[in-house]
Amino acid sequence: MSDQELRTLMEQVREEHQLNRAAYERQLELTRIVVKRNGDAFNALIEELGRFRGRLDAFGERIDAFGERIDAFGERVDAFGATLEIQREILLRFLDRLDDELPPPQG
Fold first, then answer.
1. What distance in Å separates the CA atoms of residue 102 and residue 45, rounded to the nearest whole number?
2. What pLDDT is attached to residue 1?
3. DSSP state of 4
Protein backbone atom coordinates (compact mmCIF):
# COMPACT_ATOMS: atom_id res chain seq x y z
CA MET A 1 0.00 0.00 0.00
CA SER A 2 1.42 3.35 -0.98
CA ASP A 3 1.74 6.35 1.28
CA GLN A 4 -0.97 8.12 -0.68
CA GLU A 5 -3.39 5.21 -0.26
CA LEU A 6 -2.51 5.00 3.41
CA ARG A 7 -3.15 8.74 3.89
CA THR A 8 -6.43 8.49 2.00
CA LEU A 9 -7.49 5.56 4.14
CA MET A 10 -6.47 7.39 7.35
CA GLU A 11 -8.41 10.46 6.19
CA GLN A 12 -11.48 8.31 5.59
CA VAL A 13 -11.10 6.74 9.05
CA ARG A 14 -10.75 10.21 10.60
CA GLU A 15 -13.85 11.48 8.74
CA GLU A 16 -15.79 8.37 9.78
CA HIS A 17 -14.67 8.89 13.37
CA GLN A 18 -15.79 12.54 13.27
CA LEU A 19 -19.15 11.53 11.81
CA ASN A 20 -19.56 8.85 14.49
CA ARG A 21 -18.65 11.32 17.22
CA ALA A 22 -21.13 13.91 15.87
CA ALA A 23 -23.84 11.24 15.64
CA TYR A 24 -23.06 10.08 19.18
CA GLU A 25 -23.22 13.66 20.50
CA ARG A 26 -26.55 14.20 18.74
CA GLN A 27 -27.87 10.91 20.12
CA LEU A 28 -26.70 11.89 23.60
CA GLU A 29 -28.40 15.29 23.27
CA LEU A 30 -31.64 13.64 22.12
CA THR A 31 -31.42 11.22 25.04
CA ARG A 32 -31.02 14.15 27.45
CA ILE A 33 -34.06 15.85 25.90
CA VAL A 34 -36.14 12.68 26.19
CA VAL A 35 -35.05 12.10 29.80
CA LYS A 36 -35.84 15.73 30.70
CA ARG A 37 -39.27 15.58 29.03
CA ASN A 38 -40.04 12.28 30.75
CA GLY A 39 -38.98 13.80 34.08
CA ASP A 40 -41.15 16.86 33.46
CA ALA A 41 -44.09 14.64 32.51
CA PHE A 42 -43.56 12.52 35.61
CA ASN A 43 -43.44 15.60 37.85
CA ALA A 44 -46.62 16.93 36.22
CA LEU A 45 -48.27 13.56 36.80
CA ILE A 46 -47.26 13.62 40.47
CA GLU A 47 -48.67 17.15 40.84
CA GLU A 48 -51.91 16.11 39.15
CA LEU A 49 -52.16 13.07 41.42
CA GLY A 50 -51.75 15.41 44.40
CA ARG A 51 -54.60 17.59 43.13
CA PHE A 52 -56.68 14.49 42.45
CA ARG A 53 -56.03 13.25 45.97
CA GLY A 54 -57.21 16.59 47.33
CA ARG A 55 -60.41 16.34 45.28
CA LEU A 56 -60.84 12.73 46.36
CA ASP A 57 -60.42 13.74 50.02
CA ALA A 58 -62.99 16.53 49.58
CA PHE A 59 -65.37 14.07 47.95
CA GLY A 60 -64.88 11.66 50.86
CA GLU A 61 -65.70 14.45 53.29
CA ARG A 62 -68.88 15.20 51.35
CA ILE A 63 -69.83 11.53 51.47
CA ASP A 64 -69.21 11.51 55.24
CA ALA A 65 -71.39 14.61 55.68
CA PHE A 66 -74.12 13.01 53.58
CA GLY A 67 -73.90 9.86 55.73
CA GLU A 68 -74.31 12.00 58.84
CA ARG A 69 -77.40 13.61 57.32
CA ILE A 70 -78.81 10.17 56.54
CA ASP A 71 -78.13 9.09 60.13
CA ALA A 72 -79.85 12.22 61.48
CA PHE A 73 -82.83 11.57 59.20
CA GLY A 74 -82.98 7.97 60.45
CA GLU A 75 -83.03 9.22 64.02
CA ARG A 76 -85.91 11.57 63.19
CA VAL A 77 -87.78 8.71 61.51
CA ASP A 78 -87.24 6.57 64.62
CA ALA A 79 -88.48 9.40 66.84
CA PHE A 80 -91.52 9.88 64.60
CA GLY A 81 -92.21 6.13 64.76
CA ALA A 82 -92.01 6.26 68.56
CA THR A 83 -94.41 9.21 68.56
CA LEU A 84 -96.83 7.28 66.37
CA GLU A 85 -96.60 4.29 68.71
CA ILE A 86 -97.42 6.51 71.70
CA GLN A 87 -100.34 8.06 69.82
CA ARG A 88 -101.57 4.57 68.90
CA GLU A 89 -101.47 3.51 72.55
CA ILE A 90 -103.36 6.67 73.59
CA LEU A 91 -105.98 6.06 70.87
CA LEU A 92 -106.40 2.41 71.88
CA ARG A 93 -106.89 3.41 75.53
CA PHE A 94 -109.37 6.07 74.48
CA LEU A 95 -111.30 3.54 72.37
CA ASP A 96 -111.26 1.03 75.24
CA ARG A 97 -112.66 3.67 77.62
CA LEU A 98 -115.21 4.74 75.04
CA ASP A 99 -116.23 1.13 74.55
CA ASP A 100 -116.62 0.76 78.32
CA GLU A 101 -118.83 3.87 78.52
CA LEU A 102 -121.13 3.05 75.61
CA PRO A 103 -124.18 0.91 76.21
CA PRO A 104 -124.01 -2.62 74.83
CA PRO A 105 -125.24 -3.02 71.27
CA GLN A 106 -128.95 -3.84 70.93
CA GLY A 107 -129.28 -6.86 68.83
1. 83
2. 81
3. H
